[in-house]
Design brief:
The complex is a heterotrimer. By secondary structure, chain A is mainly α. Helix content of chain A is about 70%, strand content about 0%. Chain A has one domain: MetI-like fold (Orthogonal Bundle). In chain A, helix 1 packs across helix 14. Chain A is globular and about 75 Å long. By secondary structure, chain B is an all-alpha fold. Chain B has two domains: about 35 residues, no CATH class; about 230 residues, MetI-like (MetI-like fold, Orthogonal Bundle), CATH 1.10.3720. Chain B has 15 helices and no strands. The longest helix of chain B has about 35 residues. Chain C has 18 helices and 15 strands. In chain C, the strands form three sheets. In chain C, strands 8, 9, 10, 11, 12, 14 and 15 form a seven-stranded mixed sheet that branches. In chain C, strands 1, 2, 3, 4, 7 and 13 form a six-stranded mixed sheet that branches. The two termini of chain C are about 40 Å apart. Chain C has two domains: about 150 residues, Periplasmic binding protein-like II (D-Maltodextrin-Binding Protein, domain 2); about 210 residues, D-Maltodextrin-Binding Protein, domain 2, CATH 3.40.190.10. The longest helix of chain C is centred in the first third of the chain and has 19 residues.
């Protein structure tokens, strides 16, 4: 076994074994997804038929047609998009500013504030959901887009990641601009941000995934089915005709496939983004 | 990483600005250069949606507030007293802890093995990454529904493939295992990527040197790979413990927002939300939230303490 | 429809402002889609928890209403029964974003904090649309009134029933001269009947479905037989627990015996076994459409009175007006109108197995023709109810705490005597808990 020491690709016996094992594990990992896909192309009757069959006997797009025609699902999809895009935009902007402020400027109380923010790494809606709900409720934001978006916009972790990153940028880069008389803001927007594109996209990608898939907070913050996001709608709103598995699976794929398709195309960036944001916790 | 030399900059700002401008404009300009403006937007959001809820939670936990936000009165430590004597609270905490205990080792081992596999296969690398990571991109609600369907004794895939007739989701003995399996499948991809990145960061010359010394693959793994992965393992374990203690989504979806067979899968987050939003006891729910926050804080601080100790050890 | 888009545009516009000024204009921007009235006449948002046969019936009734009232735009949403529904309805009311009309189980009313989370019905508006107090079962109406105000408009009663297959029971000699199930009046009668029925049932099919591992059904069936035995939970002032552990033990042993004697397999799909040839299944009236679909020859009675007086657990669906700070106007009027319409057209609703709360419907020939509905209409006179307290009602705190305890006895993981004591402790614990909405309601 050549331990990744930059050898040419070969089909040595060990590579064949590894590839076979990899294929088997991949089959296990993707089986539930594939099965979900097949189920969504069955009729409702066939979906619950015993014994279980992998492939639909009669392929039908009825379930897909139904979710578009009768359900709220297109509405939820747009809601999910709006919320995730807004959250991503605000988080990237706000945490880049804060990361830079903490890394590169001096002001009284900075270290105390930084400590306070770091303490926030431990807070999540799962831990403080009920008080967060009453806070947002008292602002009159339950069942609004703002109520869903803004509480997702204060992730201390993202500030920390960018703070670490900005600390790593050599000071000389900025100093030249200072001497030319540029202000902090100009330096930030014209020099620092362009340099940070990989880190910013890592934060952005990670935030988008987290927000698109966020269940708990939108679950607490929205009751009106018209305003729900995909995960929340799928879990709490029901078809009036009862649980219909083929439709449920089609809806689930609607919610899950966009990110998977995006992943296929932007694999390198996403892998780097997840690894980067995760590793920054070290 | 880099040095933390931060003394020169503010002076530079002031002097540059002073030379370039004068009068009010200069003062305004100087004011805008203040670092506080950079952190202000975040701090505002942070204050509104993190700090205020903590303080509010602390206050609410001392009252008998209900969900309407009206007519709460101070009850002292009654809520905490009740929580500490509430068997359901302890049971729910126990379920969360039990889940953590089951799922964290599984994820760590599986993620490591998957990463080793993906790292060493030389062909179609993107394919393995895609297959191992894809489930992580699904929303929890979708995962919950999928696995509820997978575990169905009549129409589900699991019993069909393995020739079982086990009602996974309706008996106490298998209820939590089912959640663990679903969670492992769903989240292993994240830790997998972390391990993969760490493997790729191991300098190849270490292996080359070892190969020259005649170490075989097994020895290289024991002597180089595993020690080099110690930090990332610490990180994965810590992240997984914190996330698993807060488990909620996939469990409630799999058990249709109920407590599971014989109440065997109700987690602490679920119990808190039940108290707050089903029984409308916001004060009591806040007290449990604060206790839960303390537990999370202890775990997080414990990790920091371990890290610091190790750093001192290596110095 | 349409509003979310508008709001989205507002929001995106506002976001630019947010980014530039760093100021949060949410109070102005975030008022939400629902506050705005749609252009297409009066809008009534109506949240319910009906799915399956009920859902289909409700949709048909709503369509009929829409046809008759083109000026009213009914926007109905179905949320999952149980926690999600009640949580969301309460949170929407608490956050002042409630729909115009909702549905609740009547047992939940006390705990739903009528004065805080609900608005009372305007009886004059209801009267205008034909709803009169004297047309309702007095007991039901009384439960809907709190502090003199009508907080709920009862729609139906849905009792727990003993469904029996006439073909199978005929073979077992359990069908009387009238073509219905012979009366069974003691536990011995019942188990004799099961013994006979078991012989008439195919191998691999269970004799009776009792939903042994379902915490809701387990509790409902316990309640039924415990009430037959004359058991109570609290004294009238809700100060003392009057739970009789001896009677409870007897009932729990009775329930457990279905499993130990091999008449029931816990966790089996009870409805499917019944369809495939099981003799009995205990279920709510809402299962009627499930069994009428496959054209089974079956009947349904209230749960047989095996412990003395007849009693069977029953709940009621009722319309409610979730609290809106500015309730009134055309939307409110339309909500009253919709609720009245559905309550008065309860024959269609009864097709789903429910007993109509609107009494004149019971004597409607169309209702009397319904089988097996008319066979169990008497169940409304013998309802076994949860105590009237804030923790009661469908999927409420009481049932969530006590249901799993009953299941433990059914499955044999805990001895019946111990379960009875545990149930008593649950009941005691609930009394000690503070009513979160502060007295009054209990």
């Amino acid at each position: 076994m050549s331990a990744g020491v930059g050898v040419r690709k070969s089909w040595s016996p060990s590579q064949i074994i590894l590839t076979v094992v990899g294929a088997a594990v991949s089959a296990v990992m993707t089986a539930p997804l594939v099965w979900t896909l097949f189920t969504s192309f069955k009729s409702e009757a066939e979906a619950v038929a015993v014994p279980v069959r992998w492939l639909p006997k009669d392929w039908t797009a009825q379930a897909w047609k139904n979710i578009f025609e009768t359900g709220n699902i297109t509405n939820w999809f747009v809601n999910s998009l709006v919320v995730s895009i807004c959250v991503t935009f605000v988080v990237v902007l706000v945490s880049a500013l804060a990361g830079y402020g903490f890394a590169r400027t001096e002001f009284r109380g900075k270290n105390a504030l930084l400590g306070l923010v770091m303490a926030g790494l431990m807070i999540s809606p799962a831990v403080l959901g009920v008080p967060l709900f009453t806070t947002v409720q008292s602002m009159g934001m339950i069942d609004t887009y703002w109520g869903m978006i803004l509480p997702q916009c204060a992730p201390a972790a993202m500030v920390y990641i960018l703070y670490k990153f900005f600390q790593g940028i050599p000071r000389e880069v900025e100093e030249a601009a200072f001497i030319d008389g540029a202000g902090r803001w100009r330096i930030f927007f014209t020099i620092v941000l362009p340099l940070s594109r990989p880190s910013l996209s890592a934060v952005g990608i990670f935030t988008f995934i987290a927000s698109w898939n966020n269940f708990l907070w939108p679950y607490m913050a929205t009751n009106n089915p018209d305003l729900m996001t995909m995960p929340n709608g799928i879990a709490t709103v029901m078809n009036s005709y009862g649980i219909q598995w083929a439709q449920l699976m089609a809806g689930g794929l609607m919610a899950g496939l966009p990110l998977i398709i995006v992943f296929v195309f932007f694999q390198r960036q996403i892998v780097a983004g997840v690894a980067h944001t995760g590793l920054a916790g070290q | 990483m880099t040095t933390l030399d931060t003394t020169a900059v503010p002076g530079a700002v002031r002097s540059v600005a002073a030379v370039a401008e004068d009068g009010n404009r200069a003062r305004l300009g100087r004011m805008l250069q203040h670092g506080g403006w950079f952190v202000a937007p975040f701090l505002l959001l942070y204050a509104l949606f993190v700090l205020v809820p903590i303080l509010r939670g602390l206050w609410l936990s001392l009252t008998d507030a209900n969900i309407t936000g009206e007519g709460a009165s101070f009850v002292g430590l009654d809520n905490y007293r009740e929580a500490l004597g509430d068997p359901l609270m302890w049971e729910s905490l126990g379920h969360s802890a039990y889940f953590t205990l089951l799922v964290v080792p599984c994820i760590v081992v599986a993620a490591f093995l998957l990463a080793m596999l993906a790292h060493h296969i030389e062909h179609a690398k993107w394919l393995w990454r895609l297959c191992f990571f894809a489930p992580f991109l699904l929303p929890s609600a979708v995962v919950g529904n999928m696995w509820r369907w997978m575990f169905n004794p009549d129409t589900g895939l699991i019993d069909h493939i393995f020739g079982l007739e086990s009602a996974w989701l309706t008996q106490k003995s298998t209820a939590m295992t089912a959640v663990v399996i679903a969670t492992l499948w769903w989240t292993v991809g994240f830790s997998f990527l972390l391990y993969l990145a760490a493997l790729q960061n191991i300098p190849p010359h270490l292996y080359e040197a070892a190969a020259l010394d005649g170490a075989n693959a097994w020895h290289r793994m024991i002597r180089i790979t595993l020690p080099m992965l110690r930090n990332i393992t610490g990180l994965v374990v810590a992240l997984q413990i914190l996330a698993s203690l807060q488990v909620f989504d996939q469990v409630v979806v799999m058990y249709e927002f109920g407590p599971g067979p014989e109440q065997s899968t109700r987690t602490l987050v679920q119990y808190t939300l039940e108290q707050g939003f089903t029984s409308y006891r916001v004060g009591y729910a806040s007290a449990i939230s604060i206790l839960f926050f303390l537990i999370i804080a202890i775990v997080a601080l414990g990790r920091m303490w371990l890290l610091r100790k190790r750093e001192e050890g290596t110095r | 429809m349409g509003q979310p888009d508008l709001n989205r545009r507002q929001l995106l516009g506002g976001l630019g402002g947010l980014a530039v000024a760093g100021s949060l204009g949410f109070a102005a921007v975030g008022t939400g889609a629902d506050a705005l009235a749609s252009g297409a006449g009066t809008r009534v948002r109506y949240w319910n928890l009906f799915s399956g046969g009920d859902g289909a019936n409700m949709i048909a009734m709503l369509d009929a209403f829409r046809k008759a009232n083109p000026g009213i735009d009914v926007k109905d949403s179905t949320l999952r029964w149980g926690n999600p529904y009640y949580t969301k309805l309460a949170m929407a009311a608490a956050g002042d974003r409630a729909p115009e009309l909702g549905v609740t189980h009547l047992g939940r009313l006390a705990g739903f904090a009528p004065e805080r989370l609900l608005d009372p019905f305007d009886r004059e508006i209801l009267a205008r649309y034909g709803v009169r107090e004297e047309d309702f079962d007095p007991a039901l109406w009384k439960r809907s009134v709190i502090d003199g105000k009508l907080y709920a408009l009862p729609l139906d009663i849905h009792p727990q029933l003993n469904f029996y297959r006439k073909d199978v029971c005929e073979k077992a000699g359990l069908i009387g001269d009238d073509g219905n199930l012979v009366p069974l009046t003691s536990t011995d009668d019942w188990f004799d009947a099961l013994k006979a029925a078991k012989k008439a049932v195919r191998r691999g099919i269970q004799t009776v479905g009792v939903h042994a591992s379902d915490q809701n059904f387990a509790w409902w069936f316990f309640m039924s037989f415990y009430a037959q035995a004359g058991g109570t939970y609290y004294d009238s002032g809700l100060t003392d627990v009057t739970f009789d552990t001896d009677k409870a033990t007897e009932v729990l042993e009775f329930l457990r015996r279905h499993i130990t004697d091999g008449y029931n397999v816990p966790g089996a799909p009870d409805a499917e076994h019944f369809i495939n040839g099981g003799a009995f299944v205990w279920e709510g009236g809402w299962s009627v459409p499930v069994y009428s679909g496959p054209k089974l020859d079956y009947g349904a009675t209230p749960l047989p009175a095996l412990f003395g007086k007849p009693a069977t657990q029953a709940e009621s669906h009722a319309f409610v007006l979730p609290r809106q700070a500015e309730r009134g106007g055309a939307g409110n009027e339309a909500a009253h109108r919709l609720a009245a319409h559905i309550v008065l057209h309860a024959v269609d609703w009864a097709g789903g197995g429910h007993i109509p709360a609107h009494l004149p419907t019971l004597s409607d020939p169309a209702y009397q023709k319904l089988r097996p509905q008319s066979e169990y209409a008497s169940a409304m006179d013998h309802m076994a109810l949860e105590p009237e307290a804030w923790f009661s009602g469908s999927s409420g705190t009481l049932s969530q705490r006590i249901g799993p305890v009953v299941v433990a006895a059914n499955l044999g993981s805990v001895k019946p005597e111990a379960v009875a004591r545990r149930m008593r402790r649950v009941l005691e614990g609930l009394l000690e808990m503070r009513n979160p909405m502060g007295g009054g309601a209990a």
